[in-house]
TrEMBL record, chains A, B:
<dbReference type="GO" id="GO:0003677">
    <property type="term" value="F:DNA binding"/>
</dbReference>
<dbReference type="InterPro" id="IPR010982">
    <property type="entry name" value="Lambda_DNA-bd_dom_sf"/>
</dbReference>
<feature type="domain" description="HTH lacI-type">
    <location>
        <begin position="5"/>
        <end position="57"/>
    </location>
</feature>
<keyword id="KW-0804">Transcription</keyword>
<keyword id="KW-0238">DNA-binding</keyword>
<dbReference type="InterPro" id="IPR046335">
    <property type="entry name" value="LacI/GalR-like_sensor"/>
</dbReference>
<dbReference type="Pfam" id="PF00356">
    <property type="entry name" value="LacI"/>
</dbReference>
<protein>
    <submittedName>
        <fullName>LacI family DNA-binding transcriptional regulator</fullName>
    </submittedName>
</protein>
<keyword id="KW-0805">Transcription regulation</keyword>
<dbReference type="Pfam" id="PF13377">
    <property type="entry name" value="Peripla_BP_3"/>
</dbReference>
<dbReference type="InterPro" id="IPR028082">
    <property type="entry name" value="Peripla_BP_I"/>
</dbReference>
<dbReference type="InterPro" id="IPR000843">
    <property type="entry name" value="HTH_LacI"/>
</dbReference>
Length: 336, 336
DNA sequence: CTGTTAGCGCTTTCAC
DNA sequence: GTGAAAGCGCTAACAG
């Protein structure tokens, strides 16, 4: 059962070098030889030892996938798409999560554990500090960022500002003037992070519409349901004149809807809510949102990464489209 | 930057064998030597090449995680928990997804790709055929099944029958008599699969209560929202006398709630709905459910697998508790 | 407690 | 188009 390349070579009556070439589809092997070797290999149930192959070739056929979570809509879908694309090219996905804690620092991304272990790195929505990016770059393998990444790197993402403007403008067109924004973590202030970009998009849409943007309209929801629920409860209690809330993610928008329900506010009659994502379960509450295709971003990013690994070139920034999906959580501003 | 064990050995003034021992914390190394070697290694930024180490030792410090999806609540949470536990022991998680298609066969689990690549395998909610299990066992590494697994294997799971009975009995106590069940895929009929067990639990609870279980009460929801929504739409249209639906997962229960809404039925006034899982977003619609802790099952399974890899022994079956969470989608049977 | 040495199972020149 | 042989960078006996 546990055959090595020598067994195949012996049975096929060729050298191990030829077996290696034949099985990997390299040129300079006679078609007849190739077919014969493959037949023998499959009959013997042979497949090369990944460690031995990696050690000898320096390539691992493995991609490191770095992500803060997997149990969040965006991350799960990106990773699922990426894994599918990688597998289609016979690459493995090595999963590394880095839990983000509210306000606190997360475990540093340690490049050492990825050394000689992966041929490329996919960073999924992880707001890396500049020095972490530098460390990763030091690994000397291609890196693709999905959802969030520093300028100068290969990025697959949305036009976050535009998405935020789209959401905000939708609310403004409905007549809302006191529109709050639920953003992520207070520590997440890298200028290129989606949270920051969405914040900027909201602010500029407000300002252009001649609406003031006082500090109290901006609160932190930590990109999850409970975080947004808590913070929105406080917000809506302290500022009952707020008629609409734009959350930077659908999960946070769901938290806002729950908060409204907790407070006995009707959505959208008393307060309108919009998010960003196009979460599968938004439908449950008729959540209005600016939708994106997360799985496809994962596929694209993985495909690009494989191109890079193969020595190809890919566009620096790939911007995915978004579309406004109007459902039932947004409506006209209440008359009071 | 790319130092090898020889560099460390030379700088530290010892042999490579000593470096290897010191860095891995093996016995028979003088404490002073150990500290010195570690200091030199960290100063040089050295870490062993995983391929070389694997090739020489036969161990990979990697666990293969097999799962049908990652963007489903149960799977995402189990995998997240497992990854966390593995990382805590410096093990890597290699992700392999095997998409399940409605009614159709999925890609066969191919043991060859895992050969000499992993020290253990975690099978998450994947209903493997007997021959696939046999193939995996042939890899000669420990395997732990989470959520669903054949008898005779190491399992971490719920008492699925009990969970189903709990859900069904809750509805019966509320006075319901025509209680439908939304199960998974028609092809998923392995006697030990959670779908099958839950089906049996529902049936026996019905029978014990003296309620008939005609075929039309059992429909397939494919374990996802759209599948259950479609099938429940048909079900509730054709059989308006059904007053309650027990879905084998929360995601399917959500589909049923959506179907009810599509049909203008009020939940729970016209139809009660209950699921199994304790999905984070069940709160959104006040979903009544029989809750389980998926992440913790992932942690436990990974921990057990690491024990097995280390040569330890673990219990054959670990059964996690469930608890009935009554919210707003179940209520008294309507009076007509 | 530490060093020497022989592999681990492939890939990759370099000849032929 | 094919083979011989030299590594790839470690670990694991085995000595000492």
């Amino acid at each position: 059962m546990a055959h090595g390349i020598e067994d195949v070579a012996r049975v096929a009556g060729v050298s191990t070098a030829t077996v290696s070439r034949a099985l990997r589809g390299l040129p300079n092997v006679a078609p007849a030889t190739r077919d014969h070797v493959r037949e023998v290999a499959s009959r013997l149930g042979y497949s090369a030892s990944p460690s031995a192959a990696s050690l000898a070739s320096g390539r691992t056929r493995t991609i490191g996938v770095l992500s803060p979570w997997i149990s969040h809509w965006f991350f799960a879908n990106v990773i699922e798409g990426a894994e599918r694309a990688l597998r289609a090219s016979d690459f493995d996905a090595l999963l590394h999560t880095f839990e983000l804690f509210r306000g606190g620092p997360r475990r540093r991304v340690d490049p050492v554990v990825l050394r000689r272990r992966v041929d490329g790195i996919l960073v999924v929505g992880l707001p890396l500090a500049a020095d972490e990016v530098a460390d990763l770059s030091g690994l000397d393998v291609p890196i693709v960022f999905v959802g969030s990444g520093p300028p100068g790197q290969i990025l697959v993402r949305l036009d976050d500002r535009l998405a935020a403007r789209t959401a905000t403008e939708h609310l403004i067109e409905l007549g809302h003037r006191r529109i709050a924004h639920v953003t992520g973590d207070p520590g997440d202030v890298l200028p290129w992070s989606p949270a920051e970009e969405r914040l900027v998009g909201w602010r500029s849409a407000m300002t252009e519409a001649g609406l003031p943007v006082p500090d109290e309209l901006e609160v932190h929801g930590y990109f999850d349901v409970p975080g947004a629920r808590e913070t929105a409860t406080r917000l809506l209690t302290q500022h009952p004149d707020i008629t609409a809330v734009f959350a930077a993610s659908d999960e946070m928008a769901m938290g806002v809807v729950l908060a409204a329900a907790d407070l006995g506010l009707r959505v959208p009659q008393d307060v309108s809510v919009i998010g960003i994502d196009g979460h599968d379960l938004g439908d449950l509450i008729g959540l209005t949102t600016v939708a994106q295709d997360a799985a496809e971003q994962g596929v694209r990013a993985a495909t690009m990464l494989l191109d890079l690994v193969a020595g190809g070139v890919v566009p620096q920034v790939t911007t995915f489209p978004t579309r406004l999906v109007i459902r039932r959580t947004t409506g006209a501003v209440p008359v009071r």
